[in-house]
Amino acid sequence: MFLASCKKDDPRADEQPELMNYFVGIEVGEEYYMVPSKDIMSGSISVVGNGIEGIAHHAVVKDGYLYVINGDEATLDKYKITETGITKEDAISTAAVMSGSFARYTDLTETNDLLLMNFPNDEGNAPYAIIDIATFTVESYGSFKMPNVDRYKPSWCRAVVSGDKVYVGGEYGVPEVYGDIPDSLITIVYDYPSFTNPKTIISKASGGSVAGYRTNGSFKDEKGDIYQWNLRSNQWASNPEDVPNTPCVFVKITDGEYDDGYAFNVSEEFDEPVSIWNAWYAGNGIAYANVILESDLSVWDNLYENYGQLYEIDIYNKTVTKLNIPKAPLSDIFSLNSVKDGKFYIPVCVKGGNANIYEIAIGGGPGDVKVGAKLDGNNVYAPSLNILN
């Protein structure tokens, strides 16, 4: 599900409540819809028959406009969101700028550009394109080279922009040997927006990927530091025998270098091996993570069963709080930029059960949650949710 606030420029706004504060995208069965909505905490949100068809996996909403990848047409589409729906205004060919690849990720940078990118090819070249939102034009495009580290080659990446640098969290391994991964976390730092002058930085806090899974493996806090979480699991690139000895951690990058004095070993908070499959930053040192017991991941398909549990992670005070929210398949939620007035919102779609938006008081206790609007039917799939104030 994709959800974001829409600003309304109606001069009557002081005389009546805003009609369309949110934008929702959701899959029901095998059909995808996107539709404006005015409420996420009461009643039902029905998209069937009300919205336009489309997948909002990596969509971005900014200032009343929706930007979304159209995989069938290989375009980045721009829509204007209004009280009555959304209207397509423009499109950019991603096929023309993504160097023979496609736009796997669409991220809004702190300078209000859209950064499109994909993971590296066999030669380590990762395609990217930078789109200026104000003019909806291509600022630059090309590919950047991710270097090998010893015998390990890059296979996955995701970036976060901070100032004139871009931090590309990497996944490294030996292509011919599944599970042969370095005993470290690897990030490549480039000048931005040129993607030049690569610098490899390494943390020995743990092993695994800091490229994320569906969500970004890196985020920037209010102090300007970059935090990362690592993915390693018996179902993801790692040797299952090594997983119990390779902890789930949060690490910090300050002034372009890993801070070796900071590491939060989340695995120590559990009695058995776990893995983190998504984590979303909510502000003030609080992140929310989809944590799965490794004992529940005997096969890949279990990612899509009701094994995901949402935890609040305080990366400053190094605490972990299990929330009173039902277990659900949370692994395929692509992005959550869903913070408003001290609350964090997330769609929880229990397989075979109810699907609702949940409101969580940031920094509250395990039970400081509210059940919000009901989503269409059961077995729905919500790929992302974002709120813009």
Provide the descriptors you would attach to this structure in a database record.
DUF4374 domain-containing protein, Gal_Oxase/kelch_b-propeller, disordered N terminus, single chain, 47% strand, Methylamine Dehydrogenase, Chain H, mainly beta
Structure, described:
The protein contains no helices and 30 strands. It is mainly β and 389 residues long. It has a domain at 89-345 and 358-371: Methylamine Dehydrogenase, Chain H (7 Propeller), CATH 2.130.10. The strands form eight sheets. It has a five-stranded mixed beta sheet with strand order 3-29-28-27-26, with no helix packed on it. A hairpin with a 4-residue loop joins strand 6 and strand 7 (75-82). The two termini are 18 Å apart. Mean pLDDT is 88; it is low at 1-19.
List the helices and strands and how they pair.
Elements: E1 22-28, E2 31-37, E3 44-45, E4 52-53, E5 60-62, E6 65-70, E7 75-82, E8 85-93, E9 105-108, E10 113-117, E11 125-132, E12 137-145, E13 153-162, E14 165-173, E15 185-191, E16 196-203, E17 218-220, E18 226-229, E19 249-254, E20 257-265, E21 274-283, E22 286-293, E23 309-314, E24 319-322, E25 335-337, E26 339-340, E27 343-349, E28 355-361, E29 369-375, E30 384-386
